[in-house]
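Chapter summary example.
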Amino acid sequence: MITAIIMASGLSSRMGENKLLLNYNNKPIIEYVFKAVKKSNFNEVIVVSQYNEIEKLSKEYKFKYIHNENANTGQSESIKLGTLNSKKSDGYMFFVGDQPFIDIKHIETMIKTFNENKEYIIIPRYKNKSGNPVIFPYNKINELLNLKNDEKGKKVITKTSKIKYVDVSENMLFDIDTKEDYKKLGVGNEKS
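The structure predicted for these 192 residues follows.
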């Protein structure tokens, strides 16, 4: 089984406000990730965040919520908190909260690929661009726990050749980092 870890602690420094709570079609952007994850059959779902609104939403979805008091340390803190607070799993699928077009079909394909290759890191890609979510096998857990500051899973990925790529749509990898990205959704500067 695989544990889903949704990392939602970011400071949204490039956006200037919490991008995860920006409104898109009357829902906060992170809720699109929650809905997709809810449709999959995970061992458990863990949400790591520092925001009360995301804690409330996590409870509505009956996801396990972990409060990140050290969010300013960087992404390594979310990775560690999610991993340390999860049940032992064959793999850990790390999601970010700013992908409104995340697709259940591609999530399921990634899970199937992992279940056939349990020693491998599974990464989605479109043409030459890769992105999130990424599945790490249990055998990478110590390397994930040794990440520091704003080190990301990429540091673990660069040290191995055991990687399988899953081809996905361009939309699946679309994430929102800037106001320009948000405008691509066609919503102007609304707030939820």
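To summarize the output: Residues 2-183 form a domain with the Spore Coat Polysaccharide Biosynthesis Protein SpsA; Chain A fold (CATH 3.90.550.10).
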